[in-house]
Amino acid sequence: MRVFCLSVLFALLAGCSNSLQIDDSYIASGQNSRVQYIVLHYTSTDFARSLQLLTQGEVSSHYLIGEAPATVYRLVDENRRAWHAGVSQWQGRTWLNGTTIGIELVNQGFYDGPNGRYWQPFAPAQIDALVVLLKGIMQRHQLPPGSIIAHSDIAPQRKVDPGPLFPWKRLADEGLLPWPDADAVARQHALFSTRLPSVQWFQEQLARQGYAVPMQGELDPATRNVIVAFQMKYRPARYDGEPDAETAALLLVLAGMQASR
């Protein structure tokens, strides 16, 4: 008898919960999207393998963009978490899977040959599709320019994607991220050519951009990896990890742009 009564009680409670009415008449003004950044990746493999890895395992991304044709596949709803960032940090925020949208582009990445490292270029149609997708995401989540970052930005000690051939300047020309003015960079470059800032200065400026970087004033391998990530984005013609005058000029101009926004 007791078991029967408990069963009836649980059934009644379940019925009550199913009939709950929620009033949506009032909308709080103090809210925004959980999404803070968009992270760009390359897949390091072909389309078939990319699709398998991103749909049948623990790794995932919100979108996958094919190479030929440049089809955009939605693999995870934007309001749900995808597992694409891993151990990551940007602008002091860590473990970015929960606050980012991940986009993977089918691209083999690089291989090391007898004449050095070869990087696969991105297909123009693939970038065209990406630009349209990015504009829609930024509008939906009301993200400011500069919210698009590289996997190498948020994990510079272990990742290099989307690599030095990714056309960041194209995204800047589309209004998707700030870009340092070439004339301003040239003026600062001339000044830094006579006297280069300290390693501590470079570390501070990189941290200001958002990178997780050591702050001990030494040019250690970790600091070089961060400089490489920055150079691949803003000076892809040479990404040797050296804290040189042009890198200093780029950092200073970008810092000025941040201050004026």
TrEMBL record:
A GO BP term here is:
peptidoglycan catabolic process
| SMART domains assigned | Ami_2
Matching entries from CDD domains are given as:
PGRP
Give any GO molecular function from the UniProt entry: N-acetylmuramoyl-L-alanine amidase activity
Q: List each copy of the N-acetylmuramoyl-L-alanine amidase domain by range.
A: 23-163
Query: What Enzyme Commission number(s) appear in the record?
Result: 3.5.1.28
Source domain of life: Bacteria
Record's keyword terms, sorted? Cell wall biogenesis/degradation, Hydrolase, Signal
Q: Which GO terms describe its cellular component?
A: outer membrane
Q: Where is the signal peptide?
A: 1-21
Can you state which reaction this protein catalyses? Hydrolyzes the link between N-acetylmuramoyl residues and L-amino acid residues in certain cell-wall glycopeptides
Q: Which family does it belong to?
A: Belongs to the N-acetylmuramoyl-L-alanine amidase 2 family.
Q: What is this protein called?
A: N-acetylmuramoyl-L-alanine amidase
Which organism does this sequence originate in?
Answer: Pseudomonas leptonychotis
